[in-house]
Structures are given as structure tokens and as C-alpha cells.
Amino acid sequence: MFPIRDHNPSGRVPYVTYALMAANIGIFLSMLPISGDERALAQIYYDYALLPRRVMEGNGYNALFSSQFLHAGWGHLGGNMLFLWVFGDNIEDEMGHAPFLGFYLLAGALSGYAHVLADQNSYIPTVGASGAIAGVMGAYLLLFPRARVDILLFVKILPVPAWIMLMIWFAMQFIGGLGASAETGGVAYWAHSGGFIAGLLLALPLWISRGGPKFWKATHGYPPHPPARYAMPKVKRK
């Protein structure tokens, strides 16, 4: 289940979202020449990836931020950038450029710390923007729960309310975290869950400033502007 777009147009150019995407893609491409050099990669991961045990020992706090810009492969990068592209522009539109950047980095750092607390003795390096983007998704759930999101389910595009897609995603992360082993690499489920909750909580002041429950009542959970409409191509079957 992948979101491919939402029906929630933003009112300003999302410069920070684009810059974050460019930074992640640029750093990944810059590391391709050393992708076969295990020693060089190990040094980069030691310096910039999140190592829970180091943080618990009082070191490596910089990695709570630097690890957000490292990715382990094309699929990892592509999936994260897709989610950021779908959900990031609307949260930046609501918060403003500079506040959104601070929100994004802080949500990512808090998601990393959630992972540290869940796996305190691990020396397995953790990388990726997923935690920060999960924070963006948590904020989206709070502000636009009934915005329409087109998801790709197998080979069919289905429009669903954002809250359904986002809550299914969160449940998958939470359940995955309960069943994950702390001794092996893989998906950092608690970073995703922690980032989602952190983003929702960090967006609470904005939601309250909009009126809180009154904002939901006035908008019925929809974005406060007309939705974007996409024409589905018609094809003939042979």
C-alpha cells in the first residue's frame, strides 16, 4: 500500500520539502562511488549513523540528526522520498518554511531517540529519513484526517481518507515493533512509531491555534480549500 498523491493542494511552493528531498538524494548519490568499499562505509556509518549504544553511553548525539540524511539503498530512499513528497508540502504550507524545517528535524531526532530507548544495547547502525517523515504523517493526520489520498494497492489506484491510510500504516509499525528482534538489522519500527507520535504532538499547538475541535468541526476534517481533482485515463480492454 503506497500513497502516490493526495487531493490536498498547497498554497505555496514547498521549498523546504524540495530542499530536503534534494539533500537526501544528493547525499545518497555522493556515496555511490564508495558503495563497494566496506571500510569507507563503516567509517561513515560510525560517524553519522545512529548507534543506540553510543547514545546511551553519552556520545553520538549528532547522529540523531545526521542519520536522517543517510539511506541504505534505492528502495529505502525512493520510498521515503515518495512519502515526503505526498505529505510534506501541506504541513510546510500550514507551518511556514522555517518552522516546518525545525519541526521535521526535531521529529526525526525524537524518532531516533525512541529507537535508542527500544534497543539500548545495539551497535547496529540505523539510517534513514523515515522517522522524520513519520512525524510529518502524524501532523497530517491531526490537521487533515479526511483529505483524500490515492494509494496504489497491488495494481489498482484507490482514493481513501487520509486517516485510514495513516492509521493502517501506524498499526503496521506498532505491531512490527512488538514482533521485531532487537539483535538483528531491518526496519526500525519504533523509530517510525515514535516519529509519528512525536509529529502529532508537535503539531498540537498549531491545531489548537486553528481552534482545535472547532477547526475539525468547521472543516469536517477536510482541508480548508477545494480538493485537487485528477482525471483517470480511460483505456480499452482487448
Keywords:
59% helix; 238 residues; single chain; 3 strands; three-stranded antiparallel sheet
What does this structure look like?
It is a single chain. The model has no long low-confidence stretch (mean pLDDT about 90). Helix 5 (about 75-95) runs parallel beside helix 7 (about 130-145). The chain has a three-stranded antiparallel β-sheet with strand order 1-2-3. With about 240 residues, the chain is mainly alpha-helical. The chain is about 60% helix and about 5% strand.
SSE order and pairing:
Layout: E1 2-6, H1 15-31, H2 38-48, H3 52-56, H4 63-66, H5 74-95, H6 97-118, H7 130-143, E2 148-153, E3 156-161, H8 162-179, H9 189-202, H10 204-209, H11 213-219
Q: What is the topology, as strand order, of the major beta sheet? A: 1-2-3
The H-and-E topology, N to C, reads as EHHHHHHHEEHHHH
Number of helices: 11
List segments where confidence is low: pLDDT < 50 over at least 5 consecutive residues. none
Structural class based on helices, strands and sheet pairing: mainly alpha
Radius of gyration: 18 Å
Percent of residues in β-strands: 5-15%
Give a nutshell description of this structure:
This protein is mainly alpha-helical.
